[in-house]
Structures are given as structure tokens and as C-alpha cells.
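Support reply, case 0932

Customer input (verbatim):
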Amino acid sequence: MKMCQVCGSFVEDYEDYCPECGAAFPSEQKESSIGLTLKENTETYKRATNPMGTTISNGDEGLTSVLMDGMEEDGYYQDIDGSFSSINYSFNNRVDDEPVKNKSKVGKYIFTVLFFAAIAFGIYMFVTNVLLKKEGAATYQEAMQIYVDAVNNKDEEALSTIVPPYHNSASLTAKDYLNNLQGVTIKYVEKDVTTLSKQQKNIVMDTIKMEYGKTVVPDEAFLVTARVKYTTERAGSINENTETVQFLVFQLDKRCYLFMDTFDIKLLDLN
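Our regenerated output:
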């Protein structure tokens, strides 16, 4: 027997609380049902005295489970009401999904790069072929080839690219030039080319100055002699003429143009 320190009542030794006043007795060592001497506040005591695995404590953790660790290892956890629920481990699925996500990111990246590369190429082509389109030809040979193709195809736009820049309208000049060659085709074979001297270039400059009132200083000037076969078709009649023709080509700012006006080549004969 033991005596309650609050109300003085005598109670059995196994009582934890006084049945008269409800006061708690100080913690003492007790012998468990399996013959071990345990302290009430130890985890082992809780397991031995409460085999269901749940206990109520006055600490911050509240209702806890002493069997929780074992249940989690088996894929289960214990609910408050003592029932067990399975744990759905989904992290393995997330790991398996990573390669698919990575492939998707790589595909989107490649598509983005190709998309912007196509846009950049389109902008480049537009700027170089439209906004920065160069008139003239790179060489006198190219200028002569443009001339022959334009006459044979009656292509005003192509011919306008080799119309000298001192003309007020390249397109109008090309149109007028081709109107004088309706029904005419050309076969052109180059025979000779002569680079004009400084004095000869001055003669060309004076001719342009008198005709257009503009000063043109060619980098180079060439007199191209070619064997030309003209085929003309008018009123159902086809005529062919072969003759030697001289074309005046000059270079301005590294671009070549064809002298589109009537020019007396004899002026260049300084002998």
C-alpha cells in the first residue's frame, strides 16, 4: 500500500492515480508482464505495456506510433485509428520519365535553332538580293553575257542592271533599247578586247558630260570586239546578218556597265 500525498488516502501499489482525488503518483520503476524492470518514460516500456503500438503522451508529438518504422519498410503506415494503408512509391516512375523529358527538351531546342536559322537566312537573302542588290556586273564578260541574254529574252529587268548609273531611269532606258531590237536575236563570239588608255577614257567622259551634264570617271574602260550574228524576223521574213561589232564597257566602283548610247568608236582611234 502507498499513501496519497495530496488527500492522505491509502491505495494499492500498482495505482498510478489516486482514486479519491485523482492526483498522480511519482514515477516509479515497475515490473512488466514479461519480467523486465522498466521506467515508464522509456520507449521500451511503451512497447511492452502497449503492444498495439500507440501511446498518448503530454509532449509536443501528441499521438505517435512505435511501429511506424517497421510499417514504412514494408510499404505500409498505421493510421490513427489503428488501420493500415499502403504507401504508393511513385518516385521510380519519375526517374523513368526523365529520359523522355530530356529527349523532348533536346527536340524543342533543335527545332528552335532551325527555326531562327531559317528566319536569319531569309532576312539575309532579302537584304542582299533586294535592299542591297548590286547593279552592274562583276566583269566585262559578265556584262556582255547579260546583254546578249537580255536581248534574246527581251528581259528589260536584266538589261537594266547593266545600264550606266548616269541615266535618269535604268528601267526606261532598257525598255527603249529593247524596243529598237524587236524580233532580233544575237549570237556573240568575242574576238578581242582592248583596255582604254587614260586619254581614251577622257574622250568617253567628255561624251557623257556633254550628253547628260554629269561627270563620270571610269576605273577602267574596255573596247570589246566581237563577231555578232543578228537574226531578224519581220512580217514572216527571217534575215541573218553577220558583222564585227565593237561594244564599249566601262567600270565604275568595281561594277561594269555597257555604254547604251550611240558612240562613235572612231573617236578612240588616236593613231
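We compared this against your earlier run and they match. Two observations from our side: The longest strand covers residues 237-252. Residues 225 and 246 are 4 Å apart (CA to CA). Please reopen the case if you see a mismatch on your end.
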